[in-house]
Amino acid sequence: MSGEGVLPPVTVIGLGPMGRAMAASLLRSGHPVTVWNRTARRADDLVAGGATLAPTPAAAVASSELTILSLTDYQAMYDILGPVAESPGRSGVPDGSGVPRGSGALDGRVLVNLSSDTPDASRRAAAWAAGHGATFVTGGVMVPAPAVGGPGAYVFYSGPRAVFDVHEPMLGLIGEPRYLGEDPGLAQLFYQAHLDVFLTALSSLLHATALVTAAGVPAADFLPGALTTLTAIPAMIGDGADLARRLEAGEHPGDLSTAQMMGATADHIVWTSERAGIDTQLPRAVKAHYDRAIAAGRGTENWTVLYETLRAGD
Questions:
Q1: Beta strands in 70-223 (DSSP E)
Q2: pTM to 2 decimals?
C-alpha cells in the first residue's frame, strides 16, 4: 500500500493515441505508471518520461491495484486478460500495491475499461470480471486524445459506487469524472448516445460540404457558416431540459416547425443531392423519419414527434 504522500501506482493497457494520452497525464501528475501494449515501441516516449514497460499483461496487472484499459473493443480485453485471469495468483500474499492475492491473478484488482463497446458488452464484462475476483468499472472518454487531461475533458463512468469513489481522484486526471450509476452498462449507453449525435453531425457536415462543392463553391466559403448552424441549434430548439420535458410528456403541439414542413425540406435535400450527383443515403434516411411520422397521421405536429416513431421503431 502506498505510504503517506506517495501516489498510488496505476497500470494502462493499450497504447493507441488515447491510451498514451491517459498514461502521459497520469505520469505528469506523479503517479507511478506501468504500461503494456502488443507493439512495445508505442511505449517509448512514456518510458522516457518515467513509465515502466511491463514484459507481459500479467506483470502489468500485478504492478497496480487499478488497471485502465484503452483498447479497440471489449473482445481485446478478453484476448489480453483472459490468460491472465486463468493464471494462479499468490493466495493471501500482498504485492506491491498491498492488495492480498486470491486464487487468480485478477483477484482483488480493479479494471476500468475505457474502450468502446455496447452497454450489454459492459454488463457481460462486469460479470466476467466478478467471476475472476475483480471489480469492473465502465467508462467512456468524451474528448479526443489531445484533449485528455485538459480543460473541458470529461468521462462517463458506471459501476460500483464505492470503488469508483476510491479511485475518482486518479480518474479525474484523465477528465472530469461523471458518475451515472451502478449499472455497468450506463456509461457505454451515454457514450454511444453522445457519439450518435456527434457522428451524425460529422457526416451531415461532410455531406453538406460535398453538396456545395459539387456546384463549384469552395469549401472555405461554406464551412464557417455551417459550423455556426451547428452551434446555433440550442438557441433554435431551446434548453435541453425543456426539450426533454416535452419529449417525456409527449408534447408536440405543432406551433413551430411541423413534421410535414420539415419533411418537405428533407425531400428538397434529397432532390438537390441527386441533381448534384452525390451520395443520397444520409438525406434519404432523414427523409424517411419524416415520412413515417406523416404516414402515421402526425404531420401537423412539431418535428419533435419524430421521437415517437423513432422510439417505437416504426
A1: 110-113, 135-141, 154-158, 176-179
A2: 0.88
Task: Tell me how far apart the alpha carbons of residues 273 and 46 are, in angstroms, rounded to a whole number.
Answer: 48
The answer to whether residues 10 and 170 touch, using CB atoms and an 8 Å cutoff, is yes
With a CB cutoff of 8 Å and minimum separation 6, the contacts of 91 are 101, 102, 103
Rg (CA), the chain: 24
Q: How many residues does the chain have?
A: 314
For the chain, the distance separating the N- and C-terminal CA atoms, rounded to the nearest angstrom, is 56
Helix runs in 53-115, H state only:
57-62, 74-86
Q: What is the pLDDT of residues 169-198, one digit of tens each?
A: 999 999 999 999 999 999 999 999 999 999
264, with CB counted inside 10 A (0-12, 13-18, 19+), is middle
Confidence check: pLDDT of 99 > 80: no
CA distance 222 to 204: 13
- pLDDT tens-digit series, residues 104-116: 899 999 999 999 9
